[in-house]
Amino acid sequence: MGTKLIEITKKRSALDYAFLSRESYDWFQKEVKKLTSPIDLAKEIAKLRRKAPFEVGGLYTYFYDPLHKDKLPYYDTFPLVIPLSLLPDGFIGLNLHYLSPMKRALFLDKLIDFDPYSTKDQKKRIDVAYDMLKATSSMKEYKPCLKRYLNTQIRSRIIPIKTSEWETALFLPTANFVGAKNAEVYRDSNKRMR
Known about the structure:
The strands form two sheets. The chain has a five-stranded antiparallel β-sheet. Residues about 1-5 have low confidence and may be disordered. The chain has helices at about 1-10, 15, 20-35, 40-50, 100-115, 130-135, 140-145, 165-170, 180-190; strands at about 60, 75, 80-85, 90-95, 145-150, 160, 175-180. By secondary structure, it is α+β, with helices and mostly antiparallel strands. The protein has one domain.
């Protein structure tokens, strides 16, 4: 799995990386190394079948292979997700990759500000539910991001992203869309937010 992610990152042009800080790049390289062991992958999949590996409101990334990908116009094989609700066979979450990097940051700020129980400095997770997003007209960004994920389709170790690393992760070019280029996905997402 790690080599696939390394191949994806090598395909990106130098321009894609121009905005990255050294800290972002170093963090990303460290996390890629965690995806390389097939034994670790087998252990993670076994854990998935026993219990949910996610905390609602956290931020996670992993390789994903959609079950009905042939019916989707495009999909992200390396989502950056905030789970909103856990289900017996998976979860519903917000894949922030469906927004351009700047819109991801603005949306994450809105989500953090929306949570009345904590401040940005104390934030460990985002306490927001789908019904709350749907009822709030200022949170239209959720619409293109809302996705259903199945535990059995996760194809790598799940990487929880520490709160202190959220901003770094938002700006990394790790989205790997199949069936469309990032610019097309962002255009479609902008239309869905209207």
